[in-house]
Amino acid sequence: MTTPSQTMPRPGHAGSCDSSVPLTSHVKAGPGGVMTDEVGVITGDVTLTTEIGPDGTVQVRIQYTGAEEWYTLTGSPAPLPPEGLAAFHERIVDAVKAGGQAEVPHATS
């Protein structure tokens, strides 16, 4: 299991009215990669970050590990599920590891 890091700055955000810290994980995307809004599928070693945006939704960004460009994981922003950000982050990490043009998983009720 990947342990989220809370040390990475917020990519592309000037600030948030929420005090939570973004969660970041470095993972290898599974076969078929992950789907982004900007460039389509990306594969390989990626860095994923989730954070609660100013409107209370979860913003999910992804990049090739070591790159400067960040992309929006398709399905982001998503509603914050009842289980909270850390659990949702782990569900997203699991989806990325599974690959198959992964997108942000739907929130569970």
Entry summary:
This protein is of the alpha+beta class.
Tell me what you see in this structure.
β2 and β3 form a beta hairpin. Strands 1, 4, 5, 6 and 7 form a five-stranded antiparallel β-sheet that branches. 28% of the residues are buried. Helix content is 13%, strand content 29%. About 14% of the residues have low confidence.
Overall 3D form:
globular
Poorly predicted regions are 5-19
**Beta fraction:** 25-35%
Tell me the helix content.
10-25%
User: Please, what is the average pLDDT?
Assistant: 86
Please outline the helices and strands.
Layout: E1 23-28, E2 34-36, E3 40-42, E4 45-52, E5 57-64, E6 71-72, E7 78-79, H1 85-98
Antiparallel strand pairs: 1-4, 2-3, 4-5, 5-6, 5-7
Keywords:
five-stranded antiparallel β-sheet; two-stranded antiparallel ribbon; globular
